[in-house]
Amino acid sequence: xxxxxxxxxxxxxxxxxxxxxxxxxxxxxxxxxxxxxxxxxxxxxxxxxxxxxxxxxxxxxxxxxxxxxxxxxxxxxxxxxxxxxxxxxxxxxxxxxxxxxxxxxxxxxxxxxxxxxxxxxxxxxxxxxxxxxxxxxxxxxxxxxxxxxxxxxxxxxxxxxxxxxxxxxxxxxxxxxxxxxxxxxxxxxxxxxxxxxxxxxxxxxxxxxxxxxxxxxxxxxxxxxxxxxxxxxxxxxxxxxxxxxxxxxxxxxxxxxxxxxxxxxxxxxxxxxxxxxxxxxxxxx
Length: 285
Fold this sequence. Notes:
Blueprint: E1 9-11, H1 19-27, E2 35-38, E3 48-49, E4 54-56, E5 61-64, H2 70-73, H3 75-106, E6 112-118, E7 142-148, H4 172-179, H5 187-193, E8 197-199, H6 206-215, E9 228-230, H7 243-259, H8 262-277
Parallel strand pairs: 1-2, 8-9
Antiparallel strand pairs: 2-5, 3-4, 4-5, 6-7
Helix pairs in contact: 3-5
């Protein structure tokens, strides 16, 4: 363990009562690395929690909190998502069979659409911004996401682009499915496989993820939890069309990451059907 003299040192100027919060904000970009923070005279020596899950007992040192077990970190939420996905898949099977038949009858091509997406990043926080040992850092584990096909078969043979509600690549049947969010139903299988949860930040396409990570500070932090079919951003905001839209959604995603809980997941699940049916305000996905 390095001594204090071996660590990078930062001076934190703030009122004594506000010093812990100011130190937390300044030290946050360092992730899990230790850093020396120069405290003002008689600064509070109380324990304070870092916003990114770190804690310190001495305000001039920052170090990661003890690792939590899988059960402590994710167990209850994961079980809720798996049970809800299993029940949802069983209940949705008749509807999914009807949707599959309508897709085949109304357009040429397969029923399902498979696409690579960026999943959870299980690396230590200090490596979340890149890993020089890899030829390319995708920012998380890549997985294949499954959806009902809503576009013409030849429409997606190019670069990865954002989806939008008025996308001219979408079939007539696809517009109905997207409007009601029914094209997302096959992702219940992704939840059972362990790629996703029902609730979490929406998984992005690899090329778009890299683009956003380079343009928006902290974008990769949303990968600290499993991606979801729905999420706090999805039940509150419409489709994102610009970088500023993404920043607004990112703020909600990071709020969810910081305050994730069994109750939060359950509340978002309860709000999602109203969003799907367009009841009240019409946020997008």
